[in-house]
Amino acid sequence: MVRTFIAIDLTPEVRERMRGPQGALAGCRARLTVVKPDAIHITLKFLGEIDEKNCERVREALSTIRFEPFEIALGGVKGNPPSSPRVIWSGVRDAGECVRLFALVEEALLPLGIPKEKRAYTPHATLARVKRFDPSLLPPLKSLASEEFGSCPVRCIKLKKSTLTPAGPIYEDIMEVRCA
Q: Which residues are catalytic?
C-alpha cells in the first residue's frame, strides 16, 4: 500500500519566502508543527492508501488530464478555524484555475470509484499545524494576514507518495502530468 496525493509544487523561491512567517509564528506559546519549506505544496486531492494496481489505474486516469499553464500568487497567512486555528496556511490567487484543475482531477478519478470531495475546494499551502492552541498565536497571525510570497507558474501536477516518519512526512514524486 502507498499513501498518495495529487499536488502542485511551488517554486523554491516562493517556499523560501514562507520561512519568515513560519519563524514569526514560532515565537508564540502555541505548540506548532511547521511544514519544512521544501515540502510546502498545494494539495489537489488526497487519495490515502492505495495498492499498486490502483496506483497504476490512478496514473492512467491522470494521464488523460489536459490543462493550460497558469500562474498562481501566494499570500495572506490565515488560520482555520479563525478563532482557534488547527491549520495555518497561505492563500492562493489564480482566477479560479486551481479549482478548475481540481475538478478535472475529480472527474478523471471518478470512474475508478474514488468519490468526489464533499467540501468545497479551497487551494492553499499549509505552513504549520497547531498541536496545542494558545491565544498568543492570534496576534502574529493577524500581522501576517497581508504577507505576500510571490507567484509561480503551474505547468504540471504530480502524483506523490507520502511516507510518514517521526521527523515528518517524506514526499516522493510518482508521476508528473504536464500541461497541454
A: 41, 124
- In DSSP terms, 170 is beta-bridged to 163
10 near 42, Cβ under 8 Å? yes
- Determine the structural domain holding residue 82 and report its residue range: 2-178
Answer for the pair 126, 89: CB distance below 8 angstroms, yes or no: yes
**Distance, CA of 126 to CA of 123 (rounded, Å):** 10
| Strand ranges in the chain using DSSP code E only, listed in sequence order | 2-9, 31-34, 41-50, 70-80, 87-93, 124-132, 148-154, 156-163, 170-178
pLDDT tier, 180 (very low <50, low <70, confident <90, very high otherwise): confident
Q: Which of 116, 118, 114, 117 is nearest to 54 (CA)?
A: 114
Tell me, what's the pLDDT at 166?
86
Decide: pTM greater than 0.85: yes
Q: Give residue 52's pLDDT.
A: 86
The CA dihedral of 108, 110, 112, 118, to the nearest 10 degrees, is: 130
> 55-98: per-residue pLDDT in tens?
999 999 999 999 999 999 999 999 999 999 999 999 999 999 99
Read off the CATH number of the domain in which 84 is found: 3.90.1140.10
Domain count, the chain: 1
Phi then psi for residue 59, to 5 deg, are: -60, -45
